[in-house]
Amino acid sequence: MQENHDPFAALRERDFLKFTSLRLIVTVATQMQAVVVGWQMYFITKDPLSLGFIGLAEAVPALMVAPFAGHFADRHNRKY
Question: What one-character-per-residue DSSP string does the chain give?
């Protein structure tokens, strides 16, 4: 086992650092959008059920597409 393991060595790679930083920014922005949409929906309707419908509207398309996307990814060449 190597004694001098540096857990931040990957962050010294410029491309990986850019990818990780942008991924963090996109994740934060997506979460902010989800909060704002829910907040706006509740502000307009004052109905907690509307928040549930928003969550359902966001989740159903992903759940419907995921099996087909997984099948496609498994069957097709990953080089392209």
Answer: --S---TTGGGGSHHHHHHHHHHHHHHHHHHHHHHHHHHHHHHHH--HHHHHHHHHHHHHHHHHHHHHHHHHHHHS-TT-
Give me the residue spans of the domains in the chain. Answer: 9-75
* pTM exceeds 0.70: no
Spatial contact of 50 and 42, defined as CB atoms under 8 Å apart: yes
Q: What are 9-37's pLDDT values in tens digits? A: 888 999 999 999 999 999 999 999 999 99
Query: Phi and psi dihedrals of 77, rounded to 5?
Result: -65, 130
